[in-house]
Write a structure and sequence with these properties.
Elements (H helix, E strand, L loop, with lengths): L2 H12 L3 H8 L3 H9 L9 H16 L7 H12 L6 H14 L4 H8 L3 H9 L7 H15 L2 H11 L9 H14 L8 H10 L2 H7 L17 E5 H18 L6 E5 L3 H5 L2 H16 L4 E5 L5 H15 L4 E5 L8 E7 L4 E7 L2 E10 L2 H17 L1 E2 L1 E4 L4 H12 L5 E4 L10 H10 L4 H21 L5 E6 L3 H6 L19 H17 L3 E6 L7 E6 L3 E6 L5 E5 L2 H8 L13
Parallel strand pairs: 2-3, 3-4, 10-11, 11-12
Antiparallel strand pairs: 1-7, 2-5, 4-8, 5-6, 6-7, 9-15, 10-13, 13-14, 14-15
Length: 580
């Protein structure tokens, strides 16, 4: 058992709080918190280790647990620390990088290893450690070697620094992966933080101005296109895609557009001129008022998938696009393309790695359009939401999600760009609202929201753990960009600013709240990377990314691959005593 697990087991069995243990042992709250989360372990000859053992033994004696002697507690905890010489941190980084880089189904891997998916997720994040890491690495490598695609092998070869010929059979591939997992020191490339940073910095109004979206006029000049047409090769297929959008935009139909594409992205993305025209065509489609159901191909390297999602951020922010994905890898040989609207259908195909030999077929024939429409609807019926997107127009649906979230069990973690409103006293909140000259109706709405949040946390905390990561801001930083009251959950789009004194007072109230609630942990970060997004995680269920800057929008992530990456994301924390 890991040291943190054994320590938490003692605390649970003795029914004591972290504060009681720190008071008796003399350890600081931050040190004990790190021991409990597994981010730090003591050495067996350290003063902190002795203090911890004696503190546990003292509480056990006071509560009549005679079997918990100093000697037994010390021996048990020492045994937990014996395996600390294994480079778990290195292994965790490599394991997470391997799963993130490949199109591996984590649920299938978990089934193969006979572990729960949540256990695999905790190993990836460093919250748990496999009892026998060598056997674990061997079984992981066996699964990956037997289930990886040819494109996965290219990725593996880059990771383990060899050629694809050196891993051309399962045995060689397995051995390379095992050695790399257990021995290779890598610099982990984070592709999640850049995605979140772009989302944090993105301003929809600036984007609309930059592409002159408000000035776009949907053309009405008839577009001369034959009833059907074939397109061969990459250049012609790009032309066919644009022809489909022309037919869709210029038609009178208001029918939704359904799009599915699992053909290689790179060939099309390399055509910069095409990508600009493509974005413009999508913008015109949205300007016309059409809704797009886009089925993304996520069975590709994770870095490539994240880059693709970055490009869709501006379109997602309009609220007119619903993103989906198809579970599992359906085939690794054929690529398919299908766009369907009320005006045309575009169907394409290729052999993977031979995209240049593919073709597309565009038709406006009603019989053929009906066939392709049903085909698109059938694919959509098998797709799962990649994320749900809520703007103010869908606030009732978002509130329904929040109500379901409240009663869903599980541990919670939040990465916040503002201090949490549930720790803010009503007196201080009123003071902030008054000097911002908030109207009475809005004031009541905000006070009611804060009251509900306080009640929500009071209901959750007795039985579940919550960790909130909050920003620590200097007065100079605050003057450059004042903190705003976090009101995205009620779609309040006016800025309500703190004074620096109010911010400090709210910070003190947050710390006090943490000290008074053993299941509530606050992490302070003096170099916090985000200003306009809040990230809330319900472990193993979903991740909610809320954009505070107008327009308010919420992304509820369902896809396990993307959700796991966000769950396992570690924001660099800068402070000497940052956990309370």
């Amino acid at each position: 058992m890991a040291f943190s697990e054994q320590l938490n087991a003692y605390i649970s069995e003795l029914n004591c709080t972290s504060k009681e243990l720190t008071d008796v042992s003399g350890l600081s709250a931050s040190v004990l918190s790190r021991y409990r989360t597994g981010s730090r372990v003591p050495t067996t000859d350290s003063e902190q280790f002795i203090q911890l053992v004696q503190g546990i033994a003292t509480i056990a004696n006071e509560r009549g647990y005679s079997e918990f002697t100093v000697e037994k507690i010390q021996k048990t905890l020492e045994d937990c620390l014996q395996d600390a010489t294994f480079p778990y941190e290195l292994f965790q980084i490599n394991f997470d990088t391997l799963l993130t880089s490949l199109s591996i189904n984590v649920a299938d891997l978990s089934h193969f290893l006979n572990f729960d998916s949540s256990y695999i997720s905790r190993i990836r994040s460093g919250q748990r450690r496999p009892s026998n890491p060598q056997d674990f690495a061997q079984n992981v490598s066996k699964y990956i070697a037997g289930h990886c695609s040819e494109s996965d092998k290219v990725t593996i070869a880059k990771l383990v620094h060899c050629t694809t010929d050196e891993i051309n059979n399962d045995s060689l591939c397995r051995d390379k992966i095992i050695h790399w997992l257990l021995n290779e020191q890598i610099e982990k490339k984070d592709v999640v933080l850049p995605f979140l940073s772009k989302l944090d910095e993105f301003d929809l109004n600036e984007f609309i101005r930059s592409i002159h979206f408000d000035e776009l006029k949907v053309p009405s000049v008839p577009f001369q296109l034959p009833t059907s047409k074939n397109y061969y090769g990459i250049d012609e297929m790009c032309e066919g895609t644009l022809d489909f959008f022309k037919a869709t935009v210029l038609s009178k139909s208001k029918e939704d557009l359904i799009a599915n594409d699992d053909t290689p992205m790179a060939d099309k993305a390399n055509g910069t001129d095409f990508m600009k025209k493509y974005i413009f065509a999508v913008a015109l489609t949205l300007k016309k008022g059409l809704h797009i159901h886009f089925i993304h191909n996520i069975n590709r390297p994770f870095e490539e998938m994240m880059m693709g999602l970055e490009g869709w951020i501006p379109m997602y922010m309009t609220g007119q696009i619903s993103p989906y994905y198809l579970k599992d890898v359906h085939n690794k040989l054929f690529g398919h393309f299908l766009y369907s609207s009320g005006a045309a259908a575009l169907s394409g195909e290729c052999i993977m790695d031979y995209h240049q030999n593919g073709k597309m077929y565009l038709t406006k024939n009603k019989t053929e359009m009906s066939y392709y429409r049903q085909r698109a609807l059938d694919i959509l019926s098998k797709a799962s939401p990649l994320m749900d997107i809520y703007r103010i127009e869908s606030k009732d649906a978002f509130y329904s999600f929040v109500e379901r979230d409240i009663v869903t069990p599980g541990n919670r973690r939040s990465i916040l760009s503002a201090l949490p409103i549930h720790t803010l006293s009503e007196e201080l909140l009123l003071q902030i609202l008054n000097h911002n000259h908030i109207e009475e109706a809005d004031k009541k709405r905000i006070l009611d929201f804060a009251k509900k949040q306080r009640q929500l946390y009071e209901n959750i905390l007795p039985n579940r753990q919550i960790i909130d990561e909050i920003p620590v801001i200097s007065e100079m930083e605050f003057l450059e960009q004042p903190m705003l009251l976090p009101l995205s959950e009620i779609f309040y789009e006016k800025d309500i600013v703190y004074t620096y004194a109010e911010y400090l007072e709210h910070m003190e109230q947050t710390i006090t709240y943490s000290q008074n609630n053993s299941n509530y942990t606050v992490k302070q970060n003096s170099r916090y990377p985000f200003k306009n997004i809040q990230i809330r995680i319900l472990e193993g269920k979903w991740v909610v990314i809320s954009k505070n800057k107008t327009p308010v929008i919420h992304f509820v992530i369902h896809n396990p691959q993307l959700r796991n990456a966000l769950e396992n994301m570690v924001i660099p924390v800068y402070d000497k005593d940052d956990t309370l």
